[in-house]
Amino acid sequence: MPLQNRVDPFGEIRAVEARGLFTGNRGVLHDPDTKTLLKRRWTTKAWIVCECAFKGRRRSVMGRNAPSGGAGWTELFFLDEVTALAAGHRPCFYCRRAAATDFMARFAAAAGLASPKVAVLDARLHGERCASGGRPRAIGRDDLETLPDGAMVAAGASAFALRDGEARAWSFSGYGKGQPQDHLPETLVLLTPPTILGVLRAGYRPVWHGSA
Fold first, then answer.
1. Domain parsing of the chain, residue ranges
2. pTM of the complete model
3. Which of 5, 22, 51, 52 is deepest in the core (most CB within 10 A)?
4. CB atoms within 10 A of CB 140
5. Given pLDDT bands bounded at 50, 70 and 90, which one contains residue 51?
6. How far, in Å, CA of 193 to CA of 201, rounded?
C-alpha cells in the first residue's frame, strides 16, 4: 500500500503509487513507527520543494531520519514544481539554492521590496494557500488570459495547468493533452497563490513534468 505523501495542486496529501520529480516538506507530520500521517498538515510556515537526490544522501521515507532518532521532516512528493507552487510550496535554499535565490529576486521585484526576508515570503504564502486556510478565489474563464504560464486553476475536483495559451489536465502521473483555454468551464477557482503568481509574472520559470 502506498504511503500518504503525494501532494496535489490543492495542497492535499494523498496516498497514490506515482512519485514525481520533487520532494519537499512542511515539517514533521508523521508517526515513524506506523509511517502514517498525524492529524496536523504542517508544523511550520516554511513549505518547501526539494530535490529528490542531493549529495548522495539517503532517507527512510516517513521513517526516523532525525539525528536524535526521531521522525525528522516528513517527505512529501510532487509531480513537478508547477504542482508544488500551486500547493503553496517554494524552492528550498539548501538543496535548490539557485532556484530559491532566483525565486526570492522575482518575489522582491513583484512585491516592490528591496531585500525581503524569506520569513516574509513564508508568512504571505501561509495566509494565501488553500491548504493552510487561504480563501480560494473564483475567477471567470476570461481571466485565464491574464494568468502567467505555470498557474493552475480548478474546475470542481479537476486541476488544470496553463501553458502556451492552453490548459493541461493534471493527474498524479502527468498532464493530459493541451486544450484551448476557452474549453474550460466558465467559472473556475484559482489555485496558485497570488504571491506566487507575481513571482511567475516576474519571470520565474518552474520545472514542468515531461508530459507537459
1. 4-128, 136-201
2. 0.96
3. 22
4. 10
5. very high
6. 12
